[in-house]
Design brief:
heterodimer; A: 281 residues; mainly alpha; MetI-like fold; 2 domains; 13 helices; flat; B: 292 residues; 12 helices
């Protein structure tokens, strides 16, 4: 016979698992739903009965995405924009965050407040003036133009994350390097930066995602078909005559897979790197 | 100037690139909006708008729907945050236990965050479809009548809230997990020796220790939820039923890009900005008072 304490422990385990599974079902269900739709043959898109995997599942929609739609072109454009955004975002945020974390210059408080305030104005209203400005610099309808907009979108959160993480690294390490004869720049690159890997990963991931899934700015700025990014490409499946639901679902899944894989691979860093600094700094 | 003191010179150069981007792409368009908000720029005088002072600001408060939309935005923000924090914290506490396969669970629970937002929003819109949506089909299985999700204001609002809860809880979960892992285990052991139950350990150790990581998340979450255009816009298909499901940002978006009332929309955006400044100030006050 089991001891009472052990019985209780078993019950706790049962409860914990039940709750975790509720969470899992809630999280995963919509994704499975999309996967199910992507496998439906054309005549079953509107099915009044609930079924996760359709009766005559087919990969037709995936074939159509790869062969009939310029999916690889959209993917290429999105990769250029997102990788560019990630690269510039990491560079600017790792520098700016370090200055805000380690130096006490005048205007520092205002800068921290200002970074938070950038999030408070409805972002879409910035579109119109941004468009006029980009036109002046001949950046409308270029991938570089949207990249600039995305860097600015992702930057506040990234700077904040970097600053928060630097705050947790003991200053002594940096100072030891200075005593050993490093210049401040060398100390930053050789000591602080390598220690900040988790936060750098978060920053890169977040900037990448900004570029990968942004739609409103892209729609206004990119008018050439050859420059369409994935979100624009997916939108083009909603034609005036009919919505290509199976294609859209297949496309959605294909678009989500790379980001999901990134999240899974970087899962470990995600928890340790996301240290938001305090609001006031 | 202290900024250019020799020891701060590096800070200046480090800040410069980020500052240039943010000033150019955010601050300049913001100021431009403030200017536009003082003009009568709209569809009829598109070419030659004139300065009209604070006309539009007065008009905001005269809008018959204004108070309704204003309070609904607060309700939207509050309801979402309550669920984001309870679910996010709850999931984090579960996953912080010694659980077989917890890395897999954690990966699965992050999914809503990893899927691009517009895809999720459109997927949920499809799931709320009266006839073909999964939600009603599942409800039918347990004998519930189909709900016309986009026929009434309340149902459409609920649909958007459910979608946004789904989207937002993993962010809080990840932040809370990071915070939980940095709480020294000795605190719990000491509390257990002193005979503190699970509830007291949670409220006297876990929550206070998580406060430094959860407070910034609360501030950011408030701002992001308050200004969340995508979810309401996409889930309710631009404000179904008949522009009844708007919160402040979607209302502004429609005014600017569908009715071309630029001056009015710009004034409204400045108003939203000021509301958020006041809210964040309020948080500052509260968290400071608690410190004493």
């Amino acid at each position: 016979m089991a001891r009472p304490g052990k019985v209780q422990a078993v019950w706790t385990q049962v409860w914990v698992h039940a709750l975790v599974w509720l969470f899992v079902i809630f999280s995963v269900f919509p994704v499975l739903q999309v996967a199910g739709i992507s496998l439906r043959p054309g005549d079953q898109l509107y099915s009044p009965d609930f079924e996760l995997v359709p009766a005559d599942a087919t990969l037709e929609a995936y074939r159509a995405m790869f062969t009939e739609k310029p999916f690889f072109l959209w993917m290429r454009n999105s990769l250029i924009v997102s990788l560019g955004t990630a690269l510039i975002g990491v560079a600017l945020a790792s520098l700016g965050g370090f200055a805000l974390s380690r130096y006490r210059f005048s205007g520092r408080g205002a800068a921290l407040q200002g970074i938070l305030m950038t999030q408070m104005f409805p972002a879409t209203m910035l579109l119109l003036p941004l468009y006029l400005m980009m036109r002046k610099f001949h950046l409308v309808d270029t991938l570089a133009g949207v990249m600039v907009a995305y860097v600015a979108t992702a930057l506040p959160f990234c700077i904040w994350t970097m600053k928060g993480y630097y705050d947790t690294i003991p200053v002594d390490l940096n100072e030891a390097a200075l005593i050993d004869g490093c210049s401040p720049l060398q100390a930053f690159v050789r000591v602080t930066l390598p220690l900040s890997a988790p936060a750098l990963v978060i920053t890169a991931l977040f900037s990448f995602m900004t570029g990968w899934s942004e739609f409103m700015v892209a729609r206004v700025m990119l008018t050439s078909r050859e420059l369409a990014t994935l979100p624009l490409g997916l939108e083009s499946l909603f034609t005036t005559y009919q919505t290509e639901w199976a294609n859209y679902a297949a496309g959605s899944l294909l678009v989500s897979v790379p980001v999901v894989v990134l999240f899974l691979v970087l899962n470990r860093y995600l928890v340790s790197g996301l240290t938001l600094g305090s609001v006031k700094g | 100037m202290r900024l250019l003191r020799p020891e701060n010179r590096l800070a200046f150069w480090f800040m410069l690139p980020a500052a240039v981007v943010l000033l150019g792409v955010v601050a300049y368009p913001f100021l431009y909006n403030v200017y536009v908000s003082l003009t009568n720029w709209n569809m009829y005088n598109f070419r030659n708008p004139e300065l009209r002072g604070f006309m539009h600001y007065g008009r905001i408060f005269m809008e018959p729907d204004f108070y309704h939309i204003f309070f609904k935005t607060f309700a939207w923000t509050a309801i979402n945050l309550v669920f984001h924090f309870t679910l996010g914290l709850g999931a984090a506490l579960l996953l912080n236990r010694k659980l077989p396969g917890r890395n897999i669970y954690r990966a699965l629970l992050i999914l809503p965050w990893a899927v691009p937002q517009y895809i999720s929003a459109l997927t949920w819109r499809g799931m709320f479809n009266v006839e073909f949506g999964a939600i009603n089909q599942l409800l039918a299985m347990i004998g519930v009548e189909p709900v016309a999700w986009f026929a009434s204001e309340g149902a459409a609002f609920s649909a958007a809230v459910i979608t946004n809860i789904w989207l937002g809880f993993p962010f809080i979960m990840v932040i809370a997990l990071g915070g939980l892992q940095s709480i020294p285990q000795e605190l719990y052991e000491a509390a257990r020796i002193d005979g503190a139950g699970a509830g007291r350990r949670f409220f006297n150790i876990t929550l206070p220790m998580l406060k430094p990581v959860l407070m910034p998340a609360l501030v950011l979450g408030t701002i992001w939820t308050f200004n969340n255009l995508n979810v309401i816009w996409l889930v309710t298909d631009q404000g179904l039923p008949a522009d009844k499901s708007h919160i402040l940002v979607t209302y502004v978006y429609k005014a600017a890009f569908f009715y071309y009332r630029y001056g009015y929309a710009a004034a409204f955006s400045v108003f939203i900005f000021l509301v958020l400044v006041v809210i964040v100030r309020g948080y500052d006050r509260v968290s400071k008072q608690e410190a004493y």
